[in-house]
Amino acid sequence: MFNFTALPPLSLYIHIPWCVRKCPYCDFNSHAAGESLPEKQYIQSLFADLERDLPSIWGRTIQSIFIGGGTPSLFSAETMDELLAGLRMRLAIEPMAEITLEANPGAIEAGKFAEFHSTGINRLSIGCQSFDDKYLEKLGRIHSGQDAINAAEMAHAAGFENFNLDLMFGLPGQTPQTAMDDIRQAISLSPSHISHYQLTIEPNTLFHHSPPTLPEDESSWAMQEQCEELLENSGFGHYEISAHAKQGKQSLHNLNYWQFGDYLGIGAGAHAKITSAATQDITRSWKLKHPEQFLAAASGEHISGTSILSREDAAFEFMMNTLRLKQGFAKTLFSERTGLPIHQISDALQQAEQRRLITQDFSSIVPTEQGWHFLNDLIALFLTETTEDA
Predict the structure, then answer these.
(1) Which value, to the nearest 10 degrees, does the dihedral of the CA atoms of residues 324, 367, 164, 258 take?
(2) Would you say residue 300 has pLDDT above 60?
(3) CB 130 within 8 A of CB 167
(4) Does the structure show a pLDDT above 70 at 314?
(5) Does residue 386 have a pLDDT over 90?
(6) Considering only CA atoms, which of 65, 88, 76 is closest in space to residue 39?
(7) In whole angstroms, what is the distance from residue 104 CA to residue 110 CA?
(8) Beta partners for 68?
(9) CB environment 279-290: b (16+ within 10 A), e (fewer)
(10) Residues 6+ apart with CB under 8 A from 362
(11) Do β-strands 329-330 and 364-367 pair in parallel, antiparallel, or remain unpaired?
(12) What does the radius of gyration of the chain's CA atoms come to, in whole angstroms?
């Protein structure tokens, strides 16, 4: 079915599903925390979950770890140290692996940054969303703009040379000028990476049931264009649709997703994609979603479901991810990561080139600016392209 000559890089995602309060726009697997968190019990469940998955990755090395949520920084530094120590006992982790922890700017969590750094966590992703209190209130955030500024300053003081600030635009009542003010404030805090993405109304969220009034498309487009120009002029290269980084500070973990690498996922609702040389297939799996179900599962019984990717799935998912990258991808990467020859998508590539959505030569494929602006249309060309060899 496939022909893999080498396995892709492997990352590890760990999901910690609790947060102080569920934000009205959030469609992630997150749950409001009670008075106390079952930190020790959850860590043991994570280890049991991991041990069940280990046979699928024997002999492979983890290049990056991302601890996401929820708000994983609600856990204590002691628990994080126990988690990382347990991972090192069970996995081959690259000595200089990128280890990212998601954090919110609340004062209690920010005060733990130095302790997190001492555990071996070397990158933070701080969910600011805005520095303007009126927009934070509309987003249901529990921190202030000053809290977000303090968190970035504490990250520097704790020794984090590499951290991301998350910002949103297209917020209720926002203007291009106030969106630019957020970007200016973020740049002044000297992060290495800024994620900048538009607020969208997702199903199964409070905003979906009671939608706020968002800026008109023309206004949101102006925000995006002006903010992207400011970021570029300030030394933040625009390397992915919503990601901007200083030179050499791109997110290695996210790049692995976007380049169709492999990743193991442990924790409530975590997903995984694993390529097997032995069986010549790509398997997706996902874990029990609700924290109580995950914690109650017997040892090693945390998987909720699995599926094997078809040739069509593999080709489509590769293109869906790699076309988010401004630099595009080498044609050889398609065969390496999908186990398929590049000619399997030649008709769709030709259509995309004719519509000026990509440029290609003998070695690479790169989305054009127009292709990025109409990314959904571009990706749709590859939805049913792949067919079996004659």
Answers:
(1) 40
(2) yes
(3) yes
(4) yes
(5) no
(6) 76
(7) 8
(8) 15
(9) eebbbbbbbbee
(10) 331
(11) antiparallel
(12) 21
